[in-house]
């Protein structure tokens, strides 16, 4: 299989498509800022994403998350009526999106074996 190449244009596109009100993670960088500076930060993130895909490991800081309780239903005073969600950094979410896309492609074309 040929190497997977992450492109600056693809990363810039993903950054520009960010929803400005998307929750920020432990890095406290708002999506709005990443969207506004997409053309400047895309080359840097492309290098980080490519290294991560090549090595199979994300940057260690991106593994940190804020765990936030989200109310499911009924009485708000009962803990079991909440579910935890993990808020990771937005670049981490983009890397997850890339990894998921690669995995779907590999499955679709029967490249992966048991």
UniProtKB/TrEMBL annotation:
GO cellular component, one term: extracellular matrix
UniProt-listed GO biological process terms: cell adhesion involved in heart morphogenesis; larval heart development
Protein name, entry field: RNA-directed DNA polymerase from mobile element jockey
Species of the source: Ridgeia piscesae
Phylogenetic lineage: Eukaryota, Metazoa, Spiralia, Lophotrochozoa, Annelida
């Amino acid at each position: 299989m040929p190497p997977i190449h992450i492109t600056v244009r693809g990363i810039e596109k993903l950054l520009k498509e960010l929803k400005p009100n998307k929750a920020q993670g432990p890095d406290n960088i708002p999506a709005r800022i990443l969207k506004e500076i997409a053309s400047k930060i895309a080359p840097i993130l492309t290098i980080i994403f490519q290294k991560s895909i090549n090595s199979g490991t994300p940057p260690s800081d991106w593994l940190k998350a804020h765990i936030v309780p989200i109310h499911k239903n009924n009485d708000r005073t009962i803990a079991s009526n909440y579910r935890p969600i993990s808020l990771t950094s937005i670049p981490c979410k983009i890397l997850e999106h890339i990894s998921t896309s690669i995995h779907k492609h590999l499955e679709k074309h029967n490249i992966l074996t048991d």
